[in-house]
Amino acid sequence: MTFRPLYFTRRAMDAMIRGPYVTLIGTATIFVAVFATGLFAAALGGAERLLAAWAGEVRISIYLAPGADLAAARAAAAAAAPGREVRAVTSAEALRDLAVELGDEARVLEGVGPGALSDEVQVAAPGISLAEARALAARLRSVPGAADVDYGEALLGPLERFVRRARTTSAVLFAALALATAVLVSNTLRLAVFARRDEIEIMKLVGATDAFVAAPFLIEGLAQGLLGGGLAAGGLLAAYAAVSPRLHAAGLGRLLTVRDALPPSLLLALVAGGALVGLLGSALSVARTLRRISTS
Amino acid sequence: MIQLFHVSKEYPGDGPALDDVSLNVEKGEFVFLTGPSGAGKSTLLKLVFCDEAPTSGQLLLFGKNVAKLPARAVPYLRRNIGVVFQDFKLLPRRTVAENVALPLEVQALPPKEIRRRVRALLRSVGLEHRGDKLPPSLSGGEQQRVAVVRALAAAPALLLADEPTGNLDPERTLEVMELLASASARGTTVVVATHDRSILERYKRRVLVLEHGRLVSDGASIRRAARGTP
After folding, report:
1. Quick count: other Cβ atoms within 10 Å of Cβ B173?
2. Residue among A4, A198, A206 whose CB faces B103 most closely
3. For chain B (length 230 residues), average pLDDT per consecutive 10?
4. Are B203 and B211 in contact (CB under 8 A)?
5. Least CB-CB distance to A212: which of B81, B89, B106?
6. Which of A108, A127, A151 is where one domain is finished?
7. Are B102 and B43 found together in one domain?
8. What is the separation, in whole angstroms, between the first and last Cα of chain A?
9. How many domains does chain B have?
10. Phi-psi region of B87 (alpha: psi -120 to 50; beta: other; left: phi over 0)
């Protein structure tokens, strides 16, 4: 077969214009599938980003017993946690920090003396996992004068369990979604191709090769995929714009900008994925129809 | 042009659609294939345009044994065969001109040449003013004329017609038969399957009679054909 891209593209466009409902259904199916996948990927990516941001704020505190040597404790902590930022905090500084953290509620500290809080050594541990935090805390317990070590287990534990479950659930949901998408798109395109079975039969009758018959269908599938994928990408951007005020109201606007939630690489992957699904779905459908015609 | 040697065709669960048929159609001949419904006329034509394969026997087309042709060669073989059906088999969503152009597009002729040929073909059947219409808007006779010129568009060496006048009134029947006869006069080998006796009586051509899948008569005598006796 002579390769005639313009001819086949024209044929594909003609068919799409002349059969708008079939085109619409194919495009809409791909749109829904790509939109759902994109929404899921964006939600998962956003959740992971938030968790990473929260985990980045983790710090381990070593509370010292009264009369302990703060400088010696800091040096010991630095030795036990090489490469991490270690800060010695006096009782007075701890009280000031607490007042800053409490903000408007700082008045509850009125009357609290500078010795009310113990001296403290803080070890910054951004992005640390629960297991790593636990191991580091165990090492820091041997710091001279250490009375207690707090590594935020109450926060990190549930957080990490949530991330682990979210990843497992995501993997299962993603697989189910991918399978459902493939079946849905394939069936829709199969119906679209089957509806034009007579056309394929007649083309074969006048001496068209399988490649000649298939080429416009492949271009149609590709075009529907690009259109469906493009609309899905646009729909996701519109959905982000719609929820953006709520994200800002919840204080997440800075952490989840549009580039964070829907990075260009994700949008491109979705459009390309839509195109691939359209192309493969059409290829499988037209191949099956051609096989049926040749064996009927 | 067409040679069958002891060709049989059976479908699973059915009796033989064709039973030990041997015949020879020469280049340029005009042949009628007749017999009652279910005699095997359409099956024979399907074998000739490689839509189906014989269960046994040999079929030679243009001197080539079709059983030995690879599947990828069949489309190229079909480009030498025009086929006309009782139900026209036109593409309803393409215009008349596009339908006629289809075999020429398949053969990758230049667009300008395709347009020139399509105009000439439609003019030859008085349909040049209907080129931009969709087939369903045409009468049955007009649709069959479009189907005939589409079959002839690529100037095939062989034209097969399966009950081409089955859906037409007598006047339209004559129009279509004249088109087939003129194709034959230009050197195209024509095989027409029909059970319309008036056609057989009007056009005194070779008549092959099939009954229950067997070739019971091969001759020019219309009387014998009409009686269906060898």
Report:
1. 21
2. A206
3. 92 87 92 91 92 92 88 90 90 92 91 94 90 93 91 93 86 86 92 90 90 84 46
4. no
5. B106
6. A151
7. no
8. 24
9. 2
10. alpha
- The partner residue sitting opposite B75, judged by closest CB among A4, A198, A207, is A207
Same domain, A86 and A231: no
CA distance B224 to chain A (A): 34
- Does residue B97 sit within a domain? yes
Pairing of strands B189-193, B30-34: parallel
Domain of residue B195: give its range: 2-80+156-227
Residues A277 and A139 in one domain: no
The whole-number pLDDT of residue A58 equals 73
CB B84 within 8 A of CB B161: yes
Q: Which residue, of B154, B179, B195, is where some domain finishes?
A: B154
Interface of B with A (CB under 8 A): 49, 71-72, 75-79, 81, 83, 89-91, 93-94, 102-103, 105-108, 150, 154
CB contact under 8 A, B89 and A203: no
Closest CA to A276 of A229, A215, A235, A236: A229
pLDDT at position B224:
47
Q: Which of B109, B110, B105, B135 is nearest to B122 (CA)?
A: B135
Number of domains in chain A: 2
Question: What distance in Å separates residue A208's CA from the closest CA in chain B?
Answer: 6
Residues in chain A closer than 8 A to B89 (CB atoms) = 198, 201-202, 205
H or E element, residue A55: helix A20-55
Average pLDDT, chain A: 84
Q: Is A18 on the interface with B (CB under 8 A)?
A: yes
Kindly report, residue by residue over A10-60, the tens digit of the pLDDT.
888 888 888 888 888 889 988 988 898 888 888 878 777 776 666 666 788
Could you list the residue range(s) of the whole structural domain that residue A290 is in?
Answer: 5-54+158-295
Residue where one domain finishes, among candidates B103, B134, B154: B154
Facing B103 at nearest CB: one of A7, A18, A207: A207
Q: Which residues of A touch B154 (CB under 8 A)?
A: 206-207
Alpha-carbon span A75 to A78, nearest angstrom: 5
- Cα B192 to Cα A147, A196, B150, B229: the distances in Å are 106, 28, 16, 20
* Last residue of one domain, picked from the residues A151, A174, A201: A151
Q: Edge to edge, what strands does the sheet with A86-89 contain?
A: A86-89, A120-124, A59-64, A146-150
